[in-house]
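One such given next:

>
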Amino acid sequence: MSLTITCGIDWAEDHHDVALVDETGKLVAKRRIGDDADGYRQLLDLLAEAGEAPETPIPVAVETARGLLFACLRATGRRVYSINPMAVARYRERHRTARAKSDHADAMTLANILRTDADVHRPLPADSELVQAIAVLARAQQDAVWNRSQLINQLRSHLKQYFPAALAAFQVRGVGLDSREARAVLAVAPDPATASRLTRAQLRAALRRSGRQRYIDDWVERLRAVFTGDYLHQLPLVERAMGRQTLALVGQLEAACRAADDLAEAAAEAFAQHPDAHILTSFPGIGPLTGARVLGEIGDDRGRFADARALKAYAGASPVTIASGKSRAVRHRRVKNQRLAAAGYVWIFGALPSPLIKEHYDRRRAAGDRHTAAMRNLFNRLLGCLFHCLQTGQTFDPSRAFPAAAAVSDAAAA
């Protein structure tokens, strides 16, 4: 009986609506449960009353798999499907055009999606506990990096309004506003007047607090020359007020930089414990942090992707074809895992110094691809290699991945 019953759960902040339907679409049971341990027990009792057997658990469809309740559901080994809310809305309009909506109706819609089209939706992957932990750390670190970039842009825009000397001092090659030196100096001199009065000893002490050990005297002389230069100024009271705002931004930036560094260390440490780590790091451009981001998004469930094409589509590396009548267009994929796509760009950028990969990139550019298109093509190629290596347990072999480029290189060497 449990094979013919499907369950839909409409998620809310503090409660969830549950609906169970049979193979004909008839409602078997419904209940509103809380988002707590008691609600979880009520859900398990409801599934058991519907005839669930331990060896054939009832599949569950949800719009979002966030929260402790759904983590516990996944831990039971049952199939949990996360259905895109846009897809749920389209299914809802199959039977009702008035756009009426309720939590119970949405739960029934989710259950009916599994009843009719379970084979075209994928359950959440059965990833190991370790890779789930890696995903948490890698995503948190990625969020911290994005937050840091946003704060850097805010600080740069703010300094441009009243303190151009700071931009001139810290926007040089190899040094940015997020550098330890910039944060240390701006913490003691957040406005032009204070910066111009800094002595050599004060600048030297600030640089040492930042952790700098070499070329301190050169830094001191350059900073003094910049801070005592001729610049436009705001009114004194306005300038001091903007300096207080800079202190607040520098404090937030300091916390974001520290969080990004700490989380990067934790993600790399967890990644090193995974048995697939040596396969990912055999690819050029993948270090511990990039490897943690890639592994966290693709997981270690070998049955998650049917083939390499599915992984490429998930990452947004493969193009999408739009054809209607006589018109046909091939475009890059916009609906994708944005985190994996971002990690892929970092991966390919780091892999470009590899001779065979650089030769493939140059060949794509010579054929008319723009930079981003050539990078996507490389990402597509390496994702296919990664899928094969993970399935077979092999490490990356560039001569097999790029046989044409390897043959050209061998001929040139001969």
User: Anything to note?
Assistant: The two ends are 70 Å apart (CA to CA).
